[in-house]
Amino acid sequence: MQDHPSDSAGARSMFDLVSNDPDASLIDRSSIGEDELRQIGELMNALGELRAAERRLSEAAQRYMRLNETDMRALHFLIVTGYRGELVTPGQLAQHLGISTASTTKLLDRLERGAHIVRAPHPTDRRALTVSITPETHRAARESVGRQQARRFHAAARLDAAEREIVIRFLREMASDLETPDGASAD
Known about the structure:
Layout: H1 9-12, H2 17-20, H3 34-65, H4 69-83, H5 90-97, H6 101-113, E1 117-121, E2 129-133, H7 135-157, H8 161-179
Antiparallel strand pairs: 1-2
Helix pairs in contact: 3-7, 5-6
């Protein structure tokens, strides 16, 4: 097994509450027992380990495909929309990525030079173009990133339905809380 920084005892405590708020100035934990505090700390550290694993996976995929993060997100979008049989325009891609149309044009130029995508006339709108991933890039993405991402399914499948519901609720609540401005209630 390969050693990662998250394998050390110091890294395991990087995200727990006591390590990040030793004087309890951010979170009042006076009503939380030691066992609960320890378990919450383990949960926060497990999330940190997941983020680190995802970062390593993303970096490895980017190196393998010789692309940056936005390029990879664009290709993923094109793969998913392709499976759905949807046509994608540069404007739709820009909206999905949250980037300007000028940045999208540069991204598409770069991906086209690398033989990752093809631009073609839209079949029903003479003014528009469609963007699709090349079969070679789709195959490479599926064999590298796709196989790695499929491992998430196996972890979820090992949970029973009730456990999955708890994890889903937790992750959605955490995402919502992280997007809630300071001082505002997420409820």
